[in-house]
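#structure-requests
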Amino acid sequence: MPAGFDPSGQTVVNALAVASEPSIFWSGDGAAGIIAGIPVPSAVGRLEVAEPMFNGPSGRTLDSHYLVPLGLSRSAAWLCDLLPESRLNVNQCKAIAEHYLPWVARGILPAVDISAAKPPIELADEHRRHAIMDEITASGADILVTLGNPVLEQFVGPMGLGHSALRTFGCTPDAYGRLHPITVAGRAMRLLPLAHPRQAGALGKNSEWWGGLHATWMRDVAGRLL
């Protein structure tokens, strides 16, 4: 996301959603090039790359708090989202309503074409759950790593692969982040349920308790799991 400035150089918004991330768990690489390719009428102002916290924090956390501790690289992982498309959160909708839509109404900027997330959010319906099962099969992986509760609630539980809550798998240092046997499409696999990157990387609103538990897992457990 870029920061927006008016023609006088004053900051209008610290971060504005202007495009879908180019890849799942994007790390923020190439943000400047993406933003440079977005035409902005001079009457509106200009866009510049926002602070790093707004572009790719979850992707960087995936690398540093999950893949590296497990001794893996992105080339060894098949990444998958419950919802394979962008959604605007409440703060993004507010920024767009205040600073973007007035220009749309004047015919200077194009209409918004990213949908807003409306609670309750169903990230994976039955069709999507089966599509994810197909991705798991296509990946050839023997370990399924889940990040946070939503994937357990809306995929793992409904598909009969395990519990629907992370706590149920174990939330003590001697139980968190262990491998559990599962069967996917008739094939034996192992499930590794972990906390969401928001918790592990202390991104935005987060739980220090889950973050501490994951830090202990990184230090004492991850390196000997695989």
